[in-house]
Amino acid sequence: MQFQFHTIGFKLSAEQEELIQEKIQNVSKIASRVDDESTIVRVDFEHTRFPEEDKRFNSEVTIFAPGAVIRAECYESTVENAIDTIEDKLRSQLERYKSKQYRRGHKGEWLPTSTLEAIEDEHVTLGNKPQIVKRKRYESTRNPMTEEEAIEQLELLGHDFFLFDNADTGRFSVIYRRYQDGYGIIEPLKDGEKKEN
């Protein structure tokens, strides 16, 4: 695994970085394909300005694994508490990743059970406008995915919504987690189409 550490407002100690690596490598053994040389792990920590003592550190760990991006995020009072919370979240997400039925690359090919292929890095660009605090860009050459695959990716990322090229409709769609239960999809109308009631 290749670790990349990024901090804002403070610096992780060598002991803290070592603890993070140890915990993530330990939990990554759940899914064997995650724990190989091609996997990139980005670790972000920010010392926040929240007045609450229990939310001083915002932490995010993103694992660029073969065929998926797995992310866990939390706010905690200490770096050590954040590491423990992230470990628990990653454990459940990696269990889900391990049980996935499909394992396709971005070009639609089946991935081998063990791979050293380079995993594309996520390009993050911060916007200059005050209201945009984070901008994520993805390659537009990704193959379309089914709605089921989009739900799976949404759950692996731990997000409430996910933008994808819908293989079922041929449109860019947003799938989102509904507050009541289940998921919803938002899609643009094509020229000449009427909105459904």
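Above is the first protein from milestone M3; the second protein from the same milestone is given next.
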Amino acid sequence: MITLDGENIYGNGVDAVDIRRRVGMVFQRPNPFPKSIYENITFGPKLLGVRRKADLDEIVESSLRGAALWDEVKDKLNQSGYSLSGGQQQRLCIARALAVEPDVVLMDEPASALDPISTLKIEELMHVLAKEYTIIIVTHNMQQAARVSDFTAMMMIDENRAGRMIEYDRTPQIFTNPKDKRTEAYVTGRFG
């Protein structure tokens, strides 16, 4: 079961569109829509009923600023999202997620396909965004987890292929004094 503010997101009567607005998703590989930069950002707000161009323009600018991309693309908003570099495309996808003002942003290995400079930009951006959003990042990169997170959960798949949380604590605790031997083995590199 997955809950958001105490409510089972798979429960009867839960509005899937509302969940999609409240939980933004950024995937491992950048996945801009085959549209302009502007249209990538306005896609979600338009689905939610925003129609006034002035409102959409404001959302585009604030979302791109929030993703640390505005200064790089403000004169290219009508160009395809595909025209951007890999790191820029990933920040475009972050901006697209921010455009609907989610409560939570899920990031699945958001820097795994990026070069070190783009990875640093994404990590710096996560620190900034964490002041306004709850960010959940999935990563196999232990150094990255230690750099960007306040809390860390160690999860494993058991013999029945079911995901299990092994340990959850403040990040320094997990990395310096884990309680579970499996966590210790993973963070020290003895397996994984």
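Note on the second protein: Residues 150-192 form one domain.
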